[in-house]
Write a structure and sequence with these properties.
Radius of gyration: 20 Å
Oligomer: single chain
Shape: extended
Helix content: 10-25%
Largest sheet: 8 strands, antiparallel
Structural class: alpha+beta
Number of helices: 3
Number of strands: 8
């Protein structure tokens, strides 16, 4: 509200990793574009660990630019679960990047989401819809979880 702007964001891809090792996790990969009604934009590339693992997770790099002229003003990079940095594009050196802290996870405490109890949720709210799948997974009943998932998908 302070800046009275709207931001349109394209969604990057999600990769399911380490499925064969039994410790699966999702990672954000690929490109996203953020367009502000103020004329500013950001092009962010989320960098995954690759098909065979290796490398750090949760990394990104990108640029902030004027969407009308295409002029790049800032470079941003880092890890969204740790520190993210920003520097003017004119002083960015990819071989030895250095910049100011844009975001540091240590500055913030994690806030647990406040969710209504399932019995108070509307029929199509996500947690209510997926409650049987979630319960089965938490209890290690994978065949039951699969049947519950199919029931949701075929409803």
């Amino acid at each position: 509200k302070e800046y009275n702007e709207e931001i349109t964001i394209t969604l990057p891809d999600l990769d399911l990793c380490s499925l064969m090792t039994g410790s699966p996790y999702l990672q954000i990969v690929g490109e996203t574009l953020m367009l502000s009604s103020t004329g500013w934009a950001a092009d962010i590339d989320f960098i995954g660990t690759g098909m065979f693992g290796g490398g750090a997770r949760d990394r990104f790099r990108g640029v902030v630019f004027d969407n009308e002229t295409g002029d790049v003003h800032y470079n941003v990079w880092g890890n969204w679960k740790a520190d993210s940095l920003i520097c003017p594009h004119s002083s960015y050196d990819e071989r030895r990047p250095s910049g100011d802290i844009l975001y540091s996870r240590e500055q913030y405490t994690r806030v647990k989401p406040v969710v209504k109890p399932i019995r108070e949720q509307e029929e199509c709210e996500s947690r209510r819809v997926w409650q049987n799948v979630t319960a089965a997974l938490q209890e290690g009943r994978y065949e039951q979880a699969n049947r519950a998932k199919e029931a949701v998908e075929n409803a």
